[in-house]
Amino acid sequence: MPPRTVNLGRTGLRAVDPAIRAYAGLRELYLHENQLTELPDWLGDFTGLRILDLSHQPLKALPTSLGRLQQLEFLYVSDLQIAELPESLGDLSSLTYLGATGNALTSVPASLGRLSRLIELRLYGNRLTDLPETYGELAALRELHLDRNAIERLPATFDQLTELRVLSLRANAVIEFPVQLSRLPRLRHLDLRANRLTQLPDLPPDTFPELEKLDLRWLNLPDVPEWVHDLERRGCAVYRTAA
Fold first, then answer.
1. DSSP 195-220
2. How far apart are CA 83 and CA 104, in angstroms?
């Protein structure tokens, strides 16, 4: 019986062997930590793939054919040398996890907003300055990791992310508190460390009803409004840099 999993990670590959095309029923393909600089278009023929790991190597681009992987659930494309993600990734209707950290992305495709099953999105360590408005349509999203970019503001549509539990914006360029986040009923962890915030807005005392952790360290905040103290009284861990 042909294998359902092929693990060629950490094997020094410089090219993908066409012989694996014979394994049409592949469910998992691991090509991580090699020396690949390009990928063949025929990777899109593995339409039964659930997991594809391409991380940690000098890949310069991803083939648009990856958009044909309609059953793909986990896609790992971190620590490559890519400057963009193909628009076709928005066609990955089964995708639940996308990790594209540590690249040179200056923007991300608006098409990713169509990923209705996406639960976790990791984009930290890139060069992003903003996100498309369409990302507010990620109805299943629970974790969004955006650390170490240059993001100044979040889309107004983010108040639609009603399943979001974790939002990490550490080390960005946010200058105004994104009040749309205060309308997220399930948010538990909010990390705003090391941004350009100098004040927080006044919000109702029942803001962030499920918040368990609010990180405000390394911000130039001379004081915080009452709702922050209310969070502390409710048991939320609020971290602030000592004056």
1. S---------TT-STT--EEE-TT--
2. 5
